[in-house]
Amino acid sequence: NLHRRARKDMEVKLVYTGPVQAPIAEGDEVGALQITAPGMEPKSVPVYAGRDVERVGLTGRIWEALLYKFYGLPEA
């Protein structure tokens, strides 16, 4: 347990080697959360892909870039 006062100084960082390259299978480890707080040993928690991500060809990448440009990030 973490003391309530220590929570305000807690830091959580997502660490990964990026960009993460497709294809990615659901359950693949893609990074880690590094958690630090006063009075607590640093902790690292693995982060796993929540779904499969297939590799996209050149045409698909262009299409995705256009969608991103006009509509922003897609909903998961």
Keywords:
76 residues, alpha+beta
Describe it for me?
The chain is an alpha+beta fold. Helix content is 24%, strand content 30%. It is built from two helices and three strands; from the N terminus they run αβββα. A three-stranded antiparallel beta sheet has the order 1-2-3, with no helix packed on it. A hairpin with a 2-residue loop joins strand 2 and strand 3. It is elongated. The chain starts with a helix and ends in a 5-residue tail after the last helix. The mean pLDDT is 87.
Helix amount, in percent?
A: 10-25%
Unreliable stretches: none
Distance between the termini: 32 Å
DSSP strand content: 25-35%
Tell me the total number of β-strands: 3
**Form type:** elongated
How many alpha or pi helices? 2
Strand order of the largest sheet: 1-2-3
Average predicted local confidence, pLDDT:
87
Structural class: alpha+beta
Helix-strand string: HEEEH
Secondary structure layout:
Blueprint: H1 4-7, E1 11-15, E2 29-37, E3 40-48, H2 58-71
Antiparallel strand pairs: 1-2, 2-3
Structure, briefly:
This protein is of the alpha+beta class. It has helices spanning 4-7, 58-71, and strands at residues 11-15, 29-37, 40-48.
